Amino acid sequence: MPARIVSPAQHRVMPWRNGGGTTAEIAFEPGDGPAGFRWRMSLADVASEGPFSAFPGCGRTIMLLSGRGMELTISENGAAPNTVRLDQPHQPFDFDGEAATTCRLIDGPVRDLNVIADRALQIDHRVVALDDADAMLEPASVWLFHVLRGTAVINIGRHLAVTEGETAIVEDEDDRAPHLRGAEADSLVYAVALRPR
């Protein structure tokens, strides 16, 4: 599939099964695993406390975008629960998608960005500030670029201009190494690479 840009108007919004919030699906690749997809990027508006949905066979990363934050209590493989406080925006956190996870809101609703992928894929991610210098990234079979602030120009042999709130999905580009630059001062991009393990 050629590289494409997804605008917020194209997000597919759906309620959580437990009624605690909504998910806006940005993009996904279908798969035959338990989750029903190979990977998915989505935004979540968390309105109340409670359990997260489990995604067996998947790894997961979550990043706070707005709100005062949340605490996640994660129980993996019978180990003692571990509580993690996420109260700083734009700091991704990785955890097991099938772990029993509950959320406590620190002070009101939050919005976060999620990437969930089959364990056959390695999720590598970084938040890239483009105010002072361009960034050259390593090749990957799939790149997801979500613009957090400003405008980013992604060079993959052709140029994609992606504005705040938009997401560029780059697949099947012969594992090109993307080159990023900011079209505005203080541009900020969340760059996620998905690579076979």
> How much helix, percentage-wise, in residues?
under 10%
Distance, first to last CA? 21 Å
Largest sheet: 6 strands, antiparallel
Cα gyration radius (Å):
17 Å
Total number of beta strands: 19
Structure description:
- With about 200 residues, this protein is an all-beta fold.
- Helices cover about 0% and strands about 60% of the residues.
- It has no helices and 19 strands.
- The chain has strands at about 5, 10-15, 20-30, 35-45, 50, 60-65, 70-75, 80-85, 95, 100-105, 110-120, 120-130, 135, 140-150, 150-155, 160-165, 165-170, 180, 190-195.
- The strands form 4 sheets. A 6-stranded antiparallel β-sheet has the order 2-3-4-11-6-9, with no helix packed on it. The protein has a 5-stranded antiparallel β-sheet with strand order 1-17-14-19-12, with no helix packed on it.
- About 30% of the residues are buried.
